[in-house]
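R.M. (postdoc): so does anyone remember the format we settled on? I'll just put the structure tokens first.
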């Protein structure tokens, strides 16, 4: 089913006229008409406004379109999302690269609506994981200092062990998501809020 037809169907199912959808989404009536007639392809932001007005996820509109078309763009999109996700493994070598590498690949492919949406979710997860890791490592350092009176204690400091555990958790989620994408399951990191 084409995107315009899907939007029209969702609009009618919600009992909305084109005028009301245009008003609720803050998109011009003419744009709504063009999109529904498949005369123009909506920009990602416009599609997000329309999806919000229809109380559905953008991915519901996009996935339906990709799965029905059986075109290589569906598998191409999934491989690009997988590249963005897998590039976060570079964070095991250089800590901040778990954010930088996915952002680079996302920027190169964000013109694709589904890659744009899912890439943001991958990057959001990596940012949250990074911030959480810093917070935990700082807390462990502080607790270790309060207990022992020293910042580093023993041959292998507890901070290194905790960081290794945090890396393991991140690698686990990256591999799990990669396996989901290989099975064409595009609902990734559902527990992660989009930060942008």
């Amino acid at each position: 089913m084409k995107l315009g037809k899907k939007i029209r169907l969702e609009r009618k199912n919600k009992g909305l006229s084109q005028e009301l959808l245009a008003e609720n989404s803050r998109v011009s009536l003419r744009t709504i008409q063009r999109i529904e007639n498949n005369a123009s392809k909506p920009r990602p932001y416009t599609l997000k406004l329309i999806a919000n007005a229809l109380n559905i996820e953008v991915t519901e509109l996009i996935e339906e379109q990709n799965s029905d078309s059986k075109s290589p763009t569906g598998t191409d999109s999934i491989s690009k999302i997988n590249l963005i996700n897998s590039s976060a493994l570079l964070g095991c070598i250089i800590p901040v690269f778990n954010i930088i590498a996915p952002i680079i690949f996302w920027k190169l492919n964000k013109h694709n609506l589904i890659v744009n949406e899912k890439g943001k979710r991958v990057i959001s997860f990596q940012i949250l994981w990074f911030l959480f890791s810093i917070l935990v490592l700082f807390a462990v350092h502080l607790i270790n200092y309060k207990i022992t009176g020293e910042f580093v204690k023993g041959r292998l400091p507890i901070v290194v062990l905790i960081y290794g555990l945090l890396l393991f958790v991140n690698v686990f989620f990256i591999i799990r998501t990669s396996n989901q994408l290989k099975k064409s399951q595009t609902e990734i990191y559902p527990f992660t809020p989009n930060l942008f």
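R.M.: ...and that's the designed sequence above, right after the tokens. Also worth knowing: Residues 72-182 form one domain. The longest helix spans residues 113-148.
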